[in-house]
Amino acid sequence: MKELTQADFAILWPELRRWLPVQVTDVWMIGSASVAIVNPEIPASLRTSRDVDVIPVGKPILYFDSNIMERELGEDSDFSAENRFFVDYVSESLLKWTPPG
Predict the structure, then answer these.
(1) Sequence-ordered list of residues with C-beta below 8 angstroms from that of 39, at least 6 positions apart, any chain
(2) Nearest alpha carbon to residue 34 among 11, 8, 69
(3) Distance between CA atoms of 27 and 67, rounded to whole angstroms?
(4) At 30, is the secondary structure helix, strand, or coil?
(5) Closest CA to 88 of 76, 96, 99
(6) Cα separation of 77 and 44, whole Å?
(7) Given its phi and psi angles, is residue 39 left (phi above 0), alpha (psi -120 to 50 degrees) or beta?
(8) Coil/strand/helix, residue 44
(9) Cα(95)–Cα(70) distance, rounded to whole angstroms?
(10) Domain extents for the chain?
(11) How does pLDDT run across 2-60, given as a tens digit for each residue?
(12) Euclidean distance between CA atoms 36 and 42, whole angstroms
């Protein structure tokens, strides 16, 4: 678990851009990590997470793409070991199960 700050997202974006499919120009971040980027003044306990959930906008998640993201930015990656958080590449269908708002 790590208290995520805007500095972590400054590190994350170039790495996402490097490994996301070229057609993906935007991503949604959901879950507790998204709170850290939107409202950095909230208590650290609400900005603490192990992962950042990322959904590519307008592009289905293909098996090959998800394997690359898992290898390069996932839980057992060098990125995770170095930064103490990892990327969880999820699909839009996950939004059906999240609470409103």
Answers:
(1) none
(2) 8
(3) 17
(4) strand
(5) 76
(6) 25
(7) beta
(8) helix
(9) 20
(10) 2-97
(11) 888 889 989 999 999 999 988 888 888 887 778 877 887 888 888 888 999 998 888 88
(12) 8
* 9-15: Cβ within 8 A, 24+ apart: 9/36, 9/37, 11/83, 12/52, 12/83, 12/87, 15/72, 15/73, 15/79
Instruction: Report the pLDDT value the prediction gives residue 38, as an integer from 0 to 100.
Output: 80
Contact between 100 and 36 under an 8 Å Cβ cutoff? The reply is: no
Sign of CA dihedral 80, 83, 89, 93: positive
The distance from CA 84 to its chain's CA centroid, rounded to whole angstroms, is: 13
Q: Residue 25 in contact with residue 16, Cβ under 8 Å?
A: no
